[in-house]
Write a structure and sequence with these properties.
CATH topology of the largest domain: Gamma Fibrinogen, Chain A, domain 1
Distance between the termini: 24 Å
Helix content: 10-25%
Number of domains: 2
CATH superfamily of the largest domain: Gamma Fibrinogen, chain A, domain 1
Shape: elongated
């Protein structure tokens, strides 16, 4: 298992996947075992989410990867503008022939000739392994037959997933899934991350952004990123979270953290208003000087949808207090500090994480 972190057109995509070795030689045995559905082999795809996606040189290489991947029954191979092929590895086959297909230009659907027989012997979906009695799911999937996304990062942890990576999370009762960055060791969602100074390999980003940008999210989690207000709201709509701000600061204490118990986030119509039962900090962290229990609930502000002029003054979006304080972590780099016992400590790294307070399997 490896974690790949990608940003495509500003959108963070799932990246904890099975590792496949680079294919150099293709044998006729491997590629001849695939076919297109009669009458609909070109310009169509099977419209299900892949359990793995990769880039290949052509459809033959895509089929070869499927042939070597347990639980792969078919592929969607779509040619990109640069000539490469986006190869989607699918854990199912169409049971209704062309009727199960969707038109998509420059794409081709191929399935294993023995897919129907293989599918009958392996009831697991999405790359799951059938043991004869149960399905063992790959990271990010759960259920009796691996047929659903995990409900939360907490569930990923309880299923034994370790490390960090992007996963599609579909809270119980939610009609859709959301791509989030999970810290599976802790079972938390990483909402925001910032480094100071920005590493040389990172492009560096501006936090003086519009409402729309904060709503949809931006950045690269390897460097700095913000998940997006709408995704955060949807997660909080279905689950109760404690919000945790972790700051790695210069000088003792090395960590200055603050915790918001039973935090709630209201919809966009309320400016993503943030409320919580209480704010607290541990005695050895002393992180609640900047983000305290006063002046709540707080609404999110950006320069083009400001409150009290705070976002224009600070230069970033945040849940400000009416006096423009409130521990904004999106200020300019030279102002990125956190007060601890009356002393401003320079922040080296800042994180905002969501820790699920109750878990419904």
């Amino acid at each position: 298992m490896a974690t790949y972190i990608l940003t495509i057109h500003g959108q963070l995509v799932i990246a904890s996947v099975l590792v496949f070795h680079t294919v150099v030689v293709y044998t006729s045995t491997e590629t001849a075992g695939f076919m297109g559905l009669p009458g609909c082999s070109l310009g169509v795809i099977y419209p299900i989410d892949p359990f793995h996606s990769t880039t290949t040189l052509n459809a033959i290489e895509c089929a070869t990867i499927c042939a070597r991947t347990y639980g792969c029954f078919s592929v969607n191979a779509c040619t990109r503008d640069d000539g490469a092929v986006t190869c989607d590895i699918l854990g199912d086959v169409s049971g209704s022939g062309c009727g199960g297909m969707t038109s998509k230009n420059r794409c081709r659907h191929l399935q294993r000739k023995d897919a129907v027989a293989l599918r009958a012997s392996n009831p697991c979906k999405n790359g799951g392994t059938w043991t004869g009695s149960i399905c063992i799911c790959i990271a990010g999937y759960a259920g009796q037959y691996c047929g659903r996304y995990i409900h939360s990062c907490r569930e990923a942890k309880e299923l034994g997933v370790t490390g960090t990576g992007f996963y599609k999370v579909q809270p119980a009762a939610s009609p859709v899934a959301y791509t989030v960055y999970c810290n599976c060791d802790a079972g938390t969602v990483w909402v925001f991350r910032r480094k100071n100074p920005v590493p040389s390999w990172c492009p560096g980003i501006s936090y003086n952004r519009t409402w729309a940008e904060y709503k949809h999210g931006f950045g690269d989690v390897d460097c700095e990123y913000f998940l997006g207000l709408e995704t955060i709201y949807r997660l909080c709509f279905y689950n109760q979270y404690q919000w945790n701000i972790y700051n790695v600061v210069q000088g003792p204490p090395s960590v200055a953290s603050v915790y918001m118990e039973s935090a709630t986030l209201s919809p966009e119509s309320t400016n993503y208003q943030l409320d919580m039962i209480r704010i607290f900090s541990n005695s050895w962290e002393l992180g609640d000087d900047a983000f305290d229990d006063d002046d709540k609930p707080r609404r999110f502000c950006t320069w083009d949808r400001d409150c009290w002029g705070c976002a224009k003054t600070v230069g970033g979006g945040w849940w400000f207090k009416s006096n423009c304080q409130g521990g904004a972590l999106t200020v300019s780099q030279d102002q990125l500090k956190w007060p601890v016992s009356g002393v401003d400590k320079v922040i080296d790294q800042a994180f905002l994480q969501l820790d699920q307070m109750d878990y419904v399997p």
